[in-house]
Write a structure and sequence with these properties.
Blueprint (H helix, E strand, L loop, with lengths): L12 H5 L2 H10 L2 E4 L4 E4 L2 H8 L5 E2 L24 H13 L8 H20 L4 E2 H6 L1 H11 L6 H12 L6 H27 L5 H7 L1 E2 L2 E2 L2 H32 L1 H9 L4 H12 L5 E5 L3 E3 L2 E3 L4 E4 L1 H4 L34 H18 L2 E4 L5 E2 L8 E3 L1 E6 L7
Length: about 400
Amino acid sequence: MKNPVFAYDPYHPATQADPYPVYRQLRDDVPVYHDDRRGFWALSRFDDVLWAAHDPATFCSGQGIALEGQARSPFPNLITMDDPRHAQLRRLVSRGFTTRPVGAFEPRVRELATSMIDDIVERAADGDRVDLVPSLTGPLPMTVLGDLIGVAPADREQFRTWSDTIVHQDVDRPETVDAGRAAGGAVVGYFGEIIAARRAAPADDLVSALIAASVDGERLADDEILGFCFLLIVAGTETTTNLLGLGALALAANPEQRARLVADPALIPGAVEEMLRWGSPVQGLARTTTRAVARHGVTIPEGAKVQLLYGSANRDEREFADPDRFDVTRPIERHLAFGHGVHFCLGAALARLEATVVFEELLRRIPEWHVDPDALGWIHSSSVRGPATLVIENATPNTSPTP
């Protein structure tokens, strides 16, 4: 099977804006794709991505999950770790992460959402155009995780900037990679101070819970706690921000679907699953092969960097009927927006909760809005996708929302 005449370039602006036509070509013509110039492979069909995700011994994470070939964190963390240590730490961290059931976060998430949407409603009523990224989709996930980890409120905007810089790296622009490393160092330094403070005086936050936790009598080392905090801030905020932004875009582009949710808010949790499938905040993550492996008559060599294209898999017509159609009532038995297998996203339940609450409140207060296409900008990344700017206009606030 030969590569087609087109090239899949995850860094190209056209790919960032709309990767789905290229994904379809990959799935149809070259499901095992090889990029000679950048030196990576890609799997694009649902069954192929699922197959690789459930074979972590062959498709390992320990050599980095970014096409750039660097793990983005200078310390070990779950997403760039293989078993058996991955399984040990995941069990320990899961206990710390779920010390309080996810449902316990709902009042705080709703408080934040209503406060931020109140401001948006006030500005919309005055005829203002509002960028949802700095007004809602960016600060809400950062504040929720800041509360969980113990980041001081005054420092959260700085963390948002660091997170953006770490994620938005482009191998064709070396300055962005250098900036990402610097931002990573700043995050590590900050959390090092938090860990030292919590060892001296524990608090009701995740860092304190991780310090106190143990596996078979063994406590986590500081670098392992640092790695997990780093992962939460970078992966846990950026992906949820993109989910909220992509969801708002989907509803603006499909007003009849939005109207169904306004009329029946009970559909919103299912609509969030469709947002995850249709938008795929994480478009793909890389693995490294530990042995040569064949698929569709093509052999991927040992030591190859392989991009698992979740975004393509979630639009695969072999798995989903009419996959490019956004349908809030679509029955979804499974999707790959949170990955699958041993590296399934630890924060999936929290992300679902945040999205459900945000869209419940947003649709209750603002049942209609339009997106300015000329002011729509996309983040630049090989792994995640979402709007960097999302300006809404002609918003129609509900002046008498149901409590």
